[in-house]
Amino acid sequence: MPQPETSPDHSGGSDLRALSSEYYVSDEVFEREKDLLFFRTWQYACHSSEVENPGDYVATDILGQNVFVIQDQDGSIRAFRNVCPHRGHKLVEGRGHTTVLVCPYHQWSFSLDGGLRRLRKTPDSQAPAASKVCLIPVRCDVMLGFVFINLDDNAATIADTWPGVEAHILETCPDVMSYKLADGASTVPPADVDCNWKIQVDNYLECQHCRHGHESFADMLDICNQNYSLGENHAYNFIPSAGKAENKAYPLDPEHDVMDLHFWFLFPNIGFGQFSGPGNLSLFQWLPVHTGRGIRVNASLEPAEPTDPGMKERQHKRTRWGEEILQPEDLAFMRSVQEGMHQHSFDRGWYIVDHENQEFSEAMIRHFHQLYRAQMEESGI
Ligand code: FES
Ligand SMILES: [Fe+2]
Asked: Could you give the maximum distance between any two Cα atoms of the chain, in Å?
């Protein structure tokens, strides 16, 4: 993995100033983010096990742009805009299975590769030739079994966008390809979070608040000895275990469990985490709903078979701790920060960047903001 920047800027100059609060409260910025960020980057759609057989499909959307993912007869996973070329009706809803895609409105039908099969016309009509009508394909790529889509036809592949990440996750979590999706589906409904999506991302990219803000988390992990690295369009955070089977968060079984924490941030809004406890890999996607509100999508993988008789119970305790302790602690911080962004007296924050003291360093947030600024082609806001 790439190493942290070697020459941090301690000058107190603009390198240490965070994004302006405008970025967190402006509807105009949100509209630009749609066009310049979310419609041009890889976004999670579903897990490949949800489209396991030819004809299986999952409908989704990226900020209102409807897409569906489907397995073709030849076994390939494809994605298309979920809009009928006839008059614009949605082709499929939710999840399901079909051998032919039939539009509910006027019954035009399409094969699984997007080609037109049939439209209603008489021989003398002026209907278009079948060769002129087809579904519009969407870029689709699979990483570690997770299916991503990209509305930008010219986007680089996932391997080129987030170089080295897939290999690093496989190295860290070698059994991941044998894992299955917990509960058989990406977590629904996603969690509602009443703050700008970047506040969620910022919160995951520093652990300066962990020692006092997450007492149980800080008891389970050796947060003083954590480290990070910054890479091309991504960052990685490692927090070693404190080595306590009994701790203030949830019980661990050192013989069967993962003890350390690994977290990968993939620009702009995807996270992969392997957390202390029974084997796991979780995907997070922080998506805006509008400027001041977002959701957190979560898809978690777990071992296909229990590794030991107590695994399910430990998984359950970890999940409850996340829902009842950790997430509410973070939510309170994030809500308050969102309020702070609206204060006339607050212009922009600071980054504390110190590679010698990585528990307190906010280099990953700065990295995120630098990538964000570059993608948004900052125009003086
Ligand atoms: S809108 Fe789909 S067949 Fe008419
Ligand atoms: Fe936190």
From this structure: 78
Pocket test for ligand 1, best of 105, 116, 121 (most atoms within 8 A of CB): 105
pTM of the model: 0.93
**Closest Cα to atom 4, ligand 1: which residue?**
106
Show the tokens assigned to 248: 């203030």
Q: Please name which ligand lies nearest the alpha carbon of 121.
A: 1
Residue ID of nearest Cα to ligand 1 atom 3: 106
Question: Ligand 2: distance of its center to the CA of 360 in Å?
Answer: 13
Task: Tell how far the Cα of 371 is from the centroid of ligand 2, in angstroms.
Answer: 22
Kindly give the parts of the chain with pLDDT less than 70.
Answer: 1-14, 184-189, 378-381
- Ligand 1 pocket test: which of 66, 81, 82, 89 has the largest number of ligand atoms within 8 Å of its C-beta? 89
Q: Tell me if 84 CB under 6 Å of ligand 1.
A: yes
Q: Tell me the two tokens of residue 3.
A: 């190493």
- Give the CA angle between residues 249, 265, 246 to the nearest 5°: 15
User: Is CATH 3.30.110.70 correct for 14-39+163-376?
Assistant: no
Query: What is the per-residue pLDDT across 247-275, written as a single tens digit (0 to 9) for each?
Result: 999 999 999 999 999 999 999 999 999 99
Considering every ligand atom, which ligand is closest to the CA of 216? 2
Take atom 1 of ligand 1 and give the residue whose Cα is closest.
Answer: 87
- The 10s digit of each residue's pLDDT in 98-157 is 999 999 999 999 999 999 998 887 777 888 888 889 999 999 999 999 999 999 999 999
Q: Which residues contact 98 (CB under 8 A, 6 or more apart)?
A: 55, 57, 92
Q: What ligand 1 atom has the least distance to the C-alpha of 106?
A: 3
Domain boundaries, given as residue ranges, for the chain: 14-39+163-376, 43-154
Per-residue pLDDT, 342: 97
Confidence (pLDDT) at 13: 44
Which SS3 state, helix, strand or coil, does residue 206 take?
coil
Predicted local confidence at residue 123, as pLDDT: 77
Phi-psi region of 64 (alpha: psi -120 to 50; beta: other; left: phi over 0): left
Indicate the CATH number of 43-154 among 3.30.70.2470, 3.30.450.20, 2.102.10.10, 3.40.50.2300: 2.102.10.10
**Rounded to whole angstroms, how far apart are CA atoms 87 and 38?**
26
